[in-house]
Amino acid sequence: MAAAARRLLSLLLLPLAWTRPAGCTDPPGGGWLAGTVPEEERCTVERADASLTYSLFLQRFAFSRPVILRGVTDNSAFRALCTREKLLAAFGARPVRLSTANTYSYRKVDVPFQEYVEQLLKPQDPARLGSDTLYFFGDNNFTEWGPLFQQYVPPAFGIPGTSPAYSFGIAGSGSGVPFHWHGPGYSEVIFGRKRWFLYPPDKTPHFHPNETTLAWLHRTYPALPLAERPLECTLRPGEVLYFPDRWWHATLNLDTSVFISTFLG
């Protein structure tokens, strides 16, 4: 098992050692498809940079409200391994477990990673229910994907009494997960853009658990009074969102997005 992991790690890291011809670069966006889903008019989630101290994080955000962090980690090496070309080369034949893109994600389907990327990773059909939409997030095989996850640098700020667990995903433009809640954690975008909608624990959003976030954005969001709208913002590569315990949140991938969450359980 250890030998297999070393072989996979060498396959992932070998492209980084190549000397590229002059003018040759990785494709824009890592080779993942750009989308046309719009961003919000104004980001309403507070932002912080690398000057944020751990004590201030605990005091202002850890137990009370979300924050977007920028410049707190450097995952450029991990990002270089997550291009479409490199992930297909390393994991194309390996199975991945897909979940339905609804609140409870009851149904699971196993397919080869290459089949998911080449046949199923498409922009969201606005007429399709979340319960009929398959989505790759979580349910990662940490033995097979471990060499990749070892290259990820998580945010340094932990929550006392918790331990981190990773959830890696890739999803098409317009896809996402409708409102749900769980424990605290972080989410970082590696490629693409991901729009977030968040409500505090005492403010249950209006949504149907089988409706996609895209459908909710088109049907429900425009009619919400300003006072009832969620906190919202779009994450770009290199940005990390922290969400506190039990905060409601829904996600919407504006492009084909590669992302990783760190759950603090």
UniProtKB/TrEMBL annotation:
It comes from the Eukaryota. Residues 131-265 form the JmjC domain. One of its GO terms (molecular function) is cis-regulatory region sequence-specific DNA binding. Residues 1-24 form the signal peptide. The lineage of its organism: Eukaryota, Metazoa, Chordata, Craniata, Vertebrata. One of its GO terms (cellular component) is nucleus. This is Jumonji domain containing 8. InterPro entries: Cupin_8, JmjC_dom, JMJD6_ArgDemeth/LysHydrox. Keywords: Signal. It comes from Aquila chrysaetos chrysaetos. The gene is JMJD8.
